[in-house]
Amino acid sequence: MIVLSSVSKLFGQKKAVDNISFKTKKGEIIGFLGPNGAGKTTTMRLILGYLKPTAGKILVAGFDPIEERVKVLKQVGYLPENNPLYQEMKVFEYLKFIASAKNEKNWQEIANEVGVSLVLNKKIEELSFGFKQRVGLAASLFGNPKYLILDEPTSGLDPLEQEKIRNLIKKLGQKKTVIFSTHILSEVEKVANRLIIIQNGQIVYDGKKPKEKGGVEELFKKKVKN
Amino acid sequence: MKNLIKKELNFYLNTPLGYLTTILFGIFANFFFVKDIFITGSASLRPFFLLLPWFLLIFIPGQAMRSFSEEKRANTIEILLSLPYQEAQIVLAKFLTNLILLIIALSLTLSLPLSLSLLTKIYLPEVLVSYLGTLLLGGSFCSLSLFFSSQTKNQVVAFLSSVVCLFFLLLLGSDFFASFIPKNLQGLLVPFSPLYHFQNFIKGILDFRSLFYFFSFTFLFLFLTVLELEKRN
Known about the structure:
Structural class of chain A: alpha/beta
Helix content of chain A: 25-40%
Oligomer: heterodimer
Number of helices of chain A: 8
Radius of gyration of chain B: 18 Å
CATH architecture of the domain at 1-75 and 182-226 in chain A: 3-Layer(aba) Sandwich
Low-confidence stretches of chain B: none
Strand content of chain A: 25-35%
Shape of chain B: globular
Number of strands of chain B: 0
Number of helices of chain B: 13
Number of domains of chain B: 1
Order of helices and strands of chain A: EEEHEHEHHHEHEHEEH
CATH class of the domain at 1-75 and 182-226 in chain A: Alpha Beta
């Protein structure tokens, strides 16, 4: 379970995350929505322990991400925003590096499932945006993590690739807890079973995804004020 | 840890930059010693070891500048810090990689004692202690350069900060500096210079104080680098 209790994060005077609390349950696929600069990436980085909270408490599987970061990181798969990768590495070198860090023996199977097995010998810098995204996603799945935190996993992909990634997230959500952020409202409608909307660092909605078609967009418009 | 070192080394081995800087170091270190050997007629390696700190002053910050700066610029630091490694392991892996590169570069200078030993008798323990001193000196330069690399996204800034800082530290132990300052101040400042302690090694002396100096210098900057990584602001 991931638990955030009254978590805030300040950058100087600016409150990037303002007193947010939520709990996740197994098998949840949480769509994390919000306008640019709302605090989605900061929240994800806080869960991972990449950033220290200014106030509040975070627990991932009962461990503090700052004090017990290695224990937390063994259970979390992470795809960061803009998917930074070691561009000079070949795909198989990068995947082997992450697999070894996460003690993943079946990395080739995962690479195959995510669809990067044909580009294993290519340098990452030579890959298309879609393939880079798949490499990042494959790496985030290594080590059989209980929790997947995906920061805009379909950003910049063409509609076909977006569909493939969405199906993969759905499949993964059957066994894992997935938190993914996106700007694409229809994506949340197709994939998520829970919705968290964040604005100006505060959660303005946390609950079930509306069932009716277009319900997410309507809810988003209602909750996020310009 | 082995995995981290392998990843770091791969970068240098996969790009011409790593080979180029190492080979250039070897060429310059050999050339600047050999060019004078026939003029002075001395077969001692001491002038060579006296030159080394000034070469390492450029070589090591040049190798180490990208260690953290590039990770920060490309944001791959976020990948690195999302892997189940302690910050200390990451810093140590980068430090050891730079040390391995230094050993490779220094091995290119082994031609000097080998060729000199054909011409004259060299005192092997002195040469070995001198190389040990060079490794310790290089290790302290690596740790300081890593620290500056962890402070900025800009490799050039990291390089220049390291070079300037190391230059002043070396200068403290130089004869040039000694001629400018009063004797009582010398006694206070000179022991802070790596050059002062390095000179013990090239005389073939294994001084405990100098060993302690290099180990604490290296540990201090590695520790500060770990603290920088742990900030998470």
